[in-house]
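For concreteness, we quote verbatim a single protein encoded this way:
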Amino acid sequence: MNLTAKQLKDYFKEIVEMIEKEKDYLCELDRKLGDGDHGVTMSIGWQAVNEKLNNELAEEQDCAKISLTVGKTFLSAVGSSVGPLYATGFMRGAKAVKGKTEMNDNDLAEYWIAFAKGIKERGQAEVGDKTMIDTLEPFFISLEKQFAESNEFLPAFTTAVEEAKKGMESTKDIVSKKGRSSRLGERSIGAQDPGATSAYLILSTFLNFVKGQVEVR
């Protein structure tokens, strides 16, 4: 499958809409573990991205430049720790597709593996710390393995998103070891991590988006 620069921008616009829909849910999850503002923070970041998509990036055809601008824009709009993490993810993804106006199966796999690994490197968290890495590490491990075996992006990505979902759900049973929520100790058990949840939603939004594009054809 191929994804054009226009489709990449359309996908980012779908994230903007999804975050608005899920904003209250993400804040509700965060109230159990942190400041209760994760949904608002994500919304601020993605509204800033939306502004760029509608103006500066409206005619842009370079997939790397689009992803790079999305990362930098999110970073300048969001002060909290999630800003540098997503910025790193989208900027690493951009490096993987430098100069491309269209991404094929191989490009898409490399983009998402670079995205997830970039966040893992930047965040210095491990699986079991109750963070977005509980979603992203099982995702990139699965995507690398499945894509190496099949060379088909959509089936590999579908399986990887299933692994991401299991990782997200596993955070309910984990004691938080990172960030503000780590102060809660055992009391953090039973609450699903908001960062792990928004990371999963970004991946599942892409899955639904590309499935929709395939059906349109």
About this structure: Helices lie at 5-31, 38-54, 63-77, 82-96, 105-123, 133-150, 153-170, 194-216. DSSP finds eight helices and two strands in the chain.
